[in-house]
Amino acid sequence: MKRINYLLVTIAVLSLAVACNKVTYKKTKSGLAYKLFPSKGKDSLLKDGQIVKFNYTIKFNDSLMDRFNSYGKMPGYVKIQKLEKPTYDFQELLPLLKKGDSVVTVQMADSLMKYQAPILPPNAKKGDRLIMTVKILEVFSVDSVALADYNKEVERDRPRQEKEQQAEMARAQKEQEEMRKKEEEELEKSGEVAKELKEMDAYLAAKKINAQKTGKGTYVTIKEQGTGAQAANDKYVNVKYSGRILRTDSVFQSNAYAFQLGRGNVIRGWDEGLLLFKEGGKGTLYIPGFLAYGKNPGPGSQPFEALIFDIELLQVSDSAITEQRQPRH
Q1: Fewer CB in a 10 Å sphere around the end CB: N or C, the chain?
Q2: b/e code 229-268 from CB counts within 10 Å (16+ = b)
Q3: For residue 158, what is the enclosing H or E element?
Q4: CA-to-CA distance for 326 and 329, rounded, in angstroms?
Q5: Domain boundaries, the chain
Q6: Architecture of the domain delimited by 2-141
Q7: Which helix (H) or strand (E) holds 257?
Q8: What is the pLDDT of residues 24-61, one digit of tens each?
Q9: Interval 185-217: pLDDT, tens
Q10: CATH for 191-317?
Q11: Any bridge partners for residue 230, and if so which?
């Protein structure tokens, strides 16, 4: 931890110097502005074929881009190779560095676009800058040793990555749920929800189908309740199904699908209707269009197409269920 804090302080000092215009820059042949900050070490300069391990940060103008900040995360690795042409990035400077050295580079947005696919925000314009700080942590002359170090860093960083991925998934699910609620509110105000529920009631009455309504408007008939574990939100389920378009009674898809219930991984009608079953249960879901694919139906379907699914709940589990095929839901 102390090592990480020391390195962060070092980079902060370099960034402060850049921000205060206290740095006199040199330029490479490509026009890349840079300033070297040599360490007190006596190591040799980097050579072609060596692999460099480094920490880095990238700022867009004065704002740190957290995606491109390796401190406390996974460091970067690069193999030094003779460049066929200027790259307008820090790799041009590697032959000037040694272990422990730091470098600050300044890339101009308009120049960067000429050399490579840039790491730039969509609103970037001429005159904007990417300021990169790099500190050489280690140098490897043997590929296998570098690979072993890389794998060690991957394992060390895995818990952070998994936590970050979980947070990102939670954020995406929250945004998806908020968007879904907003769409439902708009559909309710427009009268679309009431219209579809009325049409579904009329269909079930005409067919003399005794179905129970659950959730926002999914209708369910239970042929077999099932005797296993109860389906519940956050449980993993595997469902065998046959899907039909209510309007034509034509089958559009039959398969089995495993997913986590109540997470928005399937259409809303599934998340609602499957909660009434236990493992081994069989039944039919009658789903109004606004709880199915809404205004974005699949091929051969109309917007807000009502659907019917004959389902069998094959499995209910506390852990993820692996299967080869995952059809669109």
Answers
A1: N
A2: bebeeebbbbbebebbbbeeeeebeeebbbbbbbbbbbbb
A3: helix 143-190
A4: 8
A5: 2-141, 191-317
A6: Roll (3.10)
A7: strand 250-260
A8: 899 998 999 999 999 998 899 999 999 999 999 999 99
A9: 999 999 999 999 999 999 999 999 999 999 999
A10: 3.10.50.40
A11: 278
